[in-house]
Amino acid sequence: MDVATLHRRTVEDWESRVAAVGDDDWDRPTPCTGWSVRDLVNHVVGEELWAVPLLDGRTIAEVGDLFDGDVLGAAPRETSHDAADAAARAVDDHAPQGGVVHLSYGDERVEEYVRQLAADHLVHGWDLSVATGGDPRLDPELVAEVATWFADHEEAYRAGGAIGPHASGHGDAQSELLAAFGRDSWWAATP
Description:
By secondary structure, this protein is mainly alpha-helical.
């Protein structure tokens, strides 16, 4: 699967999960320790907002603190949708040509950056669903794509503090991917 298709499909999955967040769900805990549902959505929307200028060739310094803090505002679902749409269009425009994006750790290939975004959408989509009582099942094709890519990146993510310790999987592809990202697929929100 090409990276633009992977990205668009993970974004569409993410967006369907955000659309299902109830008005009373925003303060619920998530599998991301210390993050509420709103914090989680804010994180992903922030990444989507960053994607547009980064794919346009801007640097972290040039963007500055534009996307710091609460980027969701009073209409989090709508803000999420708009940011996801803009990021997907930017990926569709830039991924086919390749090139380089300027990230906090240095220059990275566009394809690699887009895979990182896709993985974040997929795994955080699961986080969001289990936090809000939604359907936790992930598309098996997307799970396989992200798992294949992540197998070569897991230790670097862990060493950089981006993910927690490898958790115990439960034998199926989805739970093994979640375990690689430091999640127990049997996690449930405590009322």
